[in-house]
Amino acid sequence: MKKNLLFALMLLVTAGAFAEDVEINGLWYKLVPETQEAQVIQYKNYKFYKGDYEIPNAVVWDNVSYRVTSIGYRAFSNCEQLTSVIVPSSVTSMGENAFQSCPALVSVTLGSVTRIGNSAFSGCSSLTDVTIPSSVTRIDKWAFQRCSSLTSVTIPSSVTTIEFAAFQGCSSLTAINVEEGNQDYVSDNGVLYNKDMTTLIQYPSCKSGNSYTVPNSVTCIGGYAFQNCSDLFTIQIPNSVEEIEDYVFQNCINLTEIELPDGLKRLWVYVFSGCSSLTAITIPNSVVSIDGNAFAGCSNLTTVTIGSGVESILAQAFANCPMLTNVYCYAEGIYTIAYDAFKGSNVENATLRVPEAVLETYKTTEPWNAFAQIKSLESMGERCATPTIALVNGKLVFDCETEGVEFVCRITPPEAVELKGNNLSMPSTYTVTVYAKKEGCENSAPVTRKMKIGGVTGDVNGDGVVDISDYVGVANIILTGKP
Question: Which of 79, 89, 157, 201, CA to CA, is 20 to 30 A from 285?
Answer without folding.
Answer: 201
